[in-house]
Amino acid sequence: MQRISLTGPESAGKSTLAAQLAAHYGTVFVPEFAREYLEKNGPAYALPDLEAIAHGQLAAEDAAATQATRLLFCDTDLLVIKIWAENAFGTCPAWVLAELAKQRYALTLLLAPDLPWAPDPQREHPDPAQRWRFYDLYKAELQRRGWPFAEVGGPPAQRLAQAIAAVDVA
């Protein structure tokens, strides 16, 4: 079974695309654990909360893997935790960095923030320039790590077609 990660800035359509891809390939996807965690614990967070979210995301992936067919789509990944932690707190927990050294995904889909901003109490960065800055951070990190990734952007139908094409060759 191959794991496919969807990553990128806030409001880039990761959750929608993960669900669409899972439906297309007849498998399951892993929702973003941070959403559930912050709904339960409130929007304020500290570095230990990001660590709890990271552990929860990994556990959710492992649980979903038992139900997946050939592919498992993961709505977010530890790369999001790394960039989130470094942006919010100037550091990332060493164990998260160690986990990132283990490549978990056959492919990462990097979603461009070219969709309209969808307001949400859990989202923090509505400014387009800031969203693109985060996109550039994700892209640079993926390139630095040498992970296979595909950039996905444009209107929703185009995004789905681009993602399917990338998954089919992965």
Description:
With 170 residues, the protein is α/β, with parallel strands linked by helices. It has helices spanning 14-25, 33-41, 47-65, 78-89, 94-100, 128-145, 156-169; strands spanning 2-7, 28-30, 71-75, 107-111, 149-152. The model has no long low-confidence stretch (mean pLDDT 92).
- Strand fraction band? 5-15%
In helices, the fraction of residues equals 40-55%
What is the CATH topology classification name?
Rossmann fold
- How many distinct helices? 7
CATH superfamily: P-loop containing nucleotide triphosphate hydrolases
Reading side by side through the largest sheet, how are the strands ordered?
2-3-1-4-5
Number of domains: 1
CATH architecture call: 3-Layer(aba) Sandwich
Give, in order, the helices and strands.
Answer: EHEHHEHHEHEH
| Distance from first to last alpha carbon | 12 Å
**Overall 3D form:** globular
CATH hierarchy, class: Alpha Beta
**Total number of strands:** 5
List the uncertain runs.
none
Main structural class = alpha/beta
Rg, Å, rounded: 15 Å
Q: Outline the biggest β-sheet.
A: 5 strands, parallel
How confident is the prediction overall: mean pLDDT?
Answer: 92
